[in-house]
Amino acid sequence: MIKISKLADYSVVILSTMSTHSHDLMSASTVSELTKLPEPTVSKVMKLLSKAQIIQSTRGINGGYSLIKDPEKITMESVITAIDGPIAITACADGAEPDCSLSHSCSLRGRWDGVNAALRSALETVTLADMLKIGGAQTIKTHETKDAIHGSH
Amino acid sequence: MIKISKLADYSVVILSTMSTHSHDLMSASTVSELTKLPEPTVSKVMKLLSKAQIIQSTRGINGGYSLIKDPEKITMESVITAIDGPIAITACADGAEPDCSLSHSCSLRGRWDGVNAALRSALETVTLADMLKIGGAQTIKTHETKDAIHGSH
DNA sequence: ACAAAAGAGTACATAATCAGTACAGATTAG
DNA sequence: CTAATCTGTACTGATTATGTACTCTTTTGT
């Protein structure tokens, strides 16, 4: 099964909470109360999101996090990349495994690159705003998924 | 990280081997020798592929597996689904977790459905034939990724 | 200057999942 | 009936993710 981490799932919950309750600044503990998610976890997620510049952090007393982008401009690609790292698929695909001695199989090295690109662009078509809408109507905007796919065409 | 199991990776290696050495029938052990992959693993993969009707099995002595489709008609979607199960994303997305007591978070139940659909259609655009080509030229055919995405539009 | 509140960074134990293997059953050809 | 081959299940070890704890830094308010 293709899997996205639970943290990525939480991210959506957290971001949606932040976007609906439009306080400018929300602390991790406030978000934790609203979402019922454990605080350390919320804190971890928000830290990652801020590092990826999806949200902004303000330190010190009365500090907190705030959204810096419109939900329409936050793609799932950016969120997932922020939380789970770059979108890539096992083994050879991500460039790891230098000791790959399987001659024949690795003649196909890089074979998943196109698939990765396809997945990445697919995720770029879905924004946080889309995710919020889904609770009600089930319609997703689908710009051009095609463009990003060609390798060196 | 979005992850696809190693078995799915092996599948591509195995299928490519079967398509190039076009013997009509290949036993799991033959494929194992050619790919240098451990035999039990190969056997497991081929079993799953045959169950998904991507390849065909013939039992008994002198039996084996054979391709029943053109590489162009074997999509990565079908291969991954065969090996890793339906393309879906954690938790609520696949309909599991009936004891989901997180009130607020689950008001967003189904929020990943659109993402799943996007991923699925992206994978449908890549065929085994594309994967084989990738070793040399890096060009992927990209039919219409858009169509399958709309939910109930 | 100091204390309190909040984010940042690191590290770790547990739990879940996957990979790989092994073994026993079923099927077919000769 | 025997050898070769696929089918199905079950087990074990390793990897990975998760959730949590602890400590450090930053900033504000008094």
Walk me through the structure.
With 153 residues, chain A is mainly alpha-helical. In chain A, 44% of the residues lie in helices and 5% in strands. Chain A has a two-stranded antiparallel sheet with strand order 1-2. In chain A, strand 1 (55-58) and strand 2 form a beta hairpin. In chain A, helix 1 (6-20) crosses helix 3, helix 1 crosses helix 4 (76-84) and helix 2 packs across helix 3 (39-51). The radius of gyration of chain A is 18 Å and the shape is elongated. The model of chain A is unreliable at 92-107 and 136-153 (pLDDT under 50). At the A-B interface, helix 1, helix 4, helix 5, helix 6 and helix 7 of A face helix 1, helix 4, helix 5, helix 6 and helix 7 of B. Chain A binds a DNA duplex (30 and 30 nucleotides) through residues 3, 5-7, 27-29, 38, 40-41, 43-44, 46-47, 50-51, 57-65.
